[in-house]
Design brief:
The protein has a 5-stranded antiparallel β-sheet with strand order 2-3-1-4-5. The chain has about 210 residues and is of the alpha+beta class. The chain folds into 2 domains: about 25-65 and about 150-214, no CATH class; about 70-130, Alpha-Beta Plaits (2-Layer Sandwich), CATH 3.30.70. The protein has 12 helices and 5 strands. About 65% of the residues lie in helices and about 10% in strands. The chain has helices spanning about 5-15, 20-25, 40-50, 50-65, 75-90, 110-120, 135-140, 145-150, 150-170, 175-185, 185-195, 200-214, and strands at about 70-75, 95, 100-105, 125-130, 135.
């Protein structure tokens, strides 16, 4: 084995936190489907070889299964004020904190209006639909925004495409793939988070797993 390969493996092994190891055991090993045969999660999981529980829990974590949900990362005060003004004008449900706005349109028309407003304001950091597909992926893959909101299978399959990219990025390791889905694909960043025990997205998925299935 090459020295560089040994070094890479050593670095990766150090990055595995105790939490990540537990998550792997619970989510991947001894997996038994809880869903009824023929449901949409089972269908897409079999097609793409991704655990249906992982798909379900990521959707729950991202949007609470709300198909018109839009999440916006926005610190620019001017743009925040303009966006909130639009949301209030349309009476669109939303929640805010200093760095994030969670938007819950009531229907497809309202969701598309909000999407167009974000584009008009040149907001670069937002995600849409039940699986919260990021605008960068929407534009890169030329995805149909209307279908991301209104076609569950389409939304799930495009989310799985992102998750599969993350799996390849991290050599098939589902622990890092889950964290990558939320944090992006920087190996250095995620290995650092693992060493520091700060894989909070994976931890939240694990907590939901325990609450839902145990």
């Amino acid at each position: 084995m090459r020295e560089s390969t040994k070094k890479h493996l050593s670095e990766k092994q150090k990055a595995y936190s105790k939490l990540a190891k537990i998550a792997l055991i619970i989510i991947i090993v001894n997996f038994n489907s809880l869903f009824a045969t023929g449901n949409i999660y089972e269908e897409v999981s079999k097609k793409h070889d991704i655990s249906e529980r992982i798909i379900y829990l990521i959707e729950k974590r991202e949007s609470k299964h709300k198909k018109y949900a839009i999440g916006v990362g926005l610190k620019n005060i001017n743009k925040r004020n303009k966006l909130i003004s639009h949301l209030k004008y349309k009476n669109t449900n939303h929640e805010t904190n200093p760095s994030h706005i969670s938007i819950y349109p009531k229907n497809l028309k309202e969701a598309l209006y909000t999407y167009k407003t974000l584009k008009y304001l040149n907001v670069k950091n937002f995600a849409v639909g039940s699986m919260q597909i990021h605008i960068s992926n929407i534009e890169r893959k030329n995805l149909d925004v209307k279908r991301l909101f209104d076609d569950k299978k389409y939304s799930l399959e495009n989310a799985i495409s992102v998750l599969n990219y993350c799996k390849k990025r991290f050599d098939g390791d589902i622990r890092f793939a889950i964290e990558c889905y939320n944090k992006g694909g920087s190996r250095k960043k995620l290995f650092t988070l693992a060493k520091e025990g700060k894989m909070d997205y994976l931890e939240s998925i694990l907590k939901m797993y325990k609450k839902t299935y145990m």
